Amino acid sequence: MPVVPYDKLNSLSRSIFEATGIPEDDAHILADHLTTSNLLGHDSHGVWFMPRYVPSLQSDYKPWEDHSVIVDRPGFAQVDGNGANGIVAVTKALSIAVEKARNSAIGLVALRNVSHIGRLGDFPPRIADHGMIGMVGLNGGGEFVAPFGSADRRLRPEPIAFAVPREKGPPLMLDMTLSVVAGGKVEQKIERGEPMPDGWLIDQQGRYVNDGSRYHAEPDQVAVLPLGGLQFGHKGHGLAMMIEMIIGPLSRAGCTGGKGGGGILIAAMDIGAFMDLDEYTAEIEAHVAYVGSAKPLPGFEKVYAPGEIEEVTRRKRLAEGIYIPEKTWDSISETAAELSVEMPSV
To answer: 314: which of 74, 86, 121, 214 lies 20 to 30 Å off by Cα?
Structure first.
């Protein structure tokens, strides 16, 4: 399994995306998004996507600048991306939400008709860097999640992410799906040839599925459980449906069931409109310190706030490099060769 320094992985990714012919700025946004996902420990949303993205970038790339604003009000905009790349689109649409929040305390952007938007956790911290609370939600992802009490695929993972600024260090961030596990993590297990843990997949008899090959081979028999699993899955199920019913219609992307899905809701809340920002961040630090002072159970190192584990992983991987599965590295190498991009020595 190759161990690749972050700077080499990022440089390679930028070169590959630049070689597709898309605008350089967009190529860097894509590369930085994927490699940062690996750096923070979210390999399920990292560079293994790169060979999958390249063909569409080469064949039919739609720039964000061609988007259409359908509704534009002081605190809200409804935008059709007109097929733009999702990662680039959301990265650039954040500025609309931030600007509206500056003027109206809260800025909302409902976006539709863009491609895969990658890791949601990349986006809210960018809003938090402006002294705001950030939220991004998606009624999207593959339709691979079972509703509570069934093994039929009827729901999407419905990822949501939040971030708040803090006084000490990068913004605190929570990024989660309303399925027990993100679809990309299932794919990573398959990619690595590892068995699925109990509690991830279920079959029509209500039994856990450990054979990852069944996930693709038997879509009518095997599904991912909702957040909470067999016992408390009604919570993930209910939250997933609520995300669908809020984001789908408001973005005009529609709800899952037929052709619906793929809507994004971006929210920015200007803390300064509610209270002094320094007072806010001081309160956040006090809360983090209080919760973090809880005595860890055996087997736990400490109690973390949302986003702190990613920061630990970031420092570790910057120092030690990023492990890339052999299969993924080979696929990236093939893509690089097709684009006449030189692979780094690792």
So the answer is: 86
How deeply is 34 buried, as exposed, middle or buried, from its count of CB atoms within 10 A (0-12, 13-18, 19+)? buried
Q: Is 211 helix (H, G, I), strand (E, B) or coil?
A: coil
**Helix residue spans in 172-293 (DSSP H):** 183-192, 213-217, 229-251, 277-292
Strand extents, DSSP E, the chain: 3-4, 68-73, 76-84, 106-114, 132-139, 160-164, 172-176, 201-203, 208-209, 222-224, 263-270, 322-323
d(Cα 124, Cα 148) in Å, to the nearest integer? 29
The string of pLDDT tens digits covering residues 236-285 is 999 999 999 999 999 999 998 877 899 999 999 999 999 999 999 999 99
CA-to-CA distance for 128 and 134, rounded, in angstroms?
A: 6
Count the helix, strand and coil residues of the chain and give each as a percent rounded to the nearest 5. Answer: 45, 20, 35
Q: What is the pTM of this model?
A: 0.94
The rounded Cα 253 to chain-centroid distance in angstroms is: 19
Distance CA 208, CA 223 (A): 10
